[in-house]
Amino acid sequence: MLAAEKIKARMSQIISVKLEKFTDDAVLKDLVSDSFILIDMVIDLQSTFNVRLDQEDLVNVHTVGDLIKVIQSK
Amino acid sequence: MKIAPLTENERWLLSFYRTSEISGALFFGRLARSLQPGPIQVDLTKHFADESQHSWYWTRCLQTLGHEPIRLDSSYQDQYISAAGMPVNIMEVLGITLIFEKRVIGQYSIHRQVEDLNPEVKKTIDLIVEDEKWHIEWVTKALQSLEGEYGKEHIEKTLKKFHEADKEVYKKTVAEHEDRIKGILKYQK
Is the ipTM of this complex over 0.90? Predict the structure, then answer.
């Protein structure tokens, strides 16, 4: 299974936010206030880790931990 | 023929167009960096360059007419996410882009019909619309190329959802800014 730390590291790199801010309960919209940057991050993660997500996958995703679990489930 | 100076409402509308082009450029620029190599990356990169150019065209148009752009904090696209939900994969991004570009070309086409339209504004619209036609063409082809991966029916369902969201956003935007744009709305069929 894809390591959570690897996903966090990539997220940190894409949006240039310090890695320590990516706790499991960190709210995504607090870390990434611009929706378009958030979209770019999600697309980059799919490209980097060779997974595919749909809108339905993210309906209940609010935190870093939620997003990591969805990516790991693919 | 004497050309009327730009009204404050016209200045606002051209600034609104400019802000939306910038917003599109910034988004596509980031995506162009994130996408894997391939035809979609190539065309999206060109699309991003075009949107930047369009924002320059509007800046130049306003300056030529003796005005500075008005700084606006939000663009038309910002409302899409609230109405349609966040697109999360490339098919959804292209889907919402297609719907948006059709709205843009429609809006510019309406604006172009305004009687005694300032020639500088007309020239700017004509330049931009030429590119927008290619934008619709390449995005349509790109979505077709993704049918194998996402399914034709699923893509069509996604486009329908985004189309409904766009209608809602457009209606809300027009209502919010009716006073500023009523001069153009009367040309809408």
Answer: no
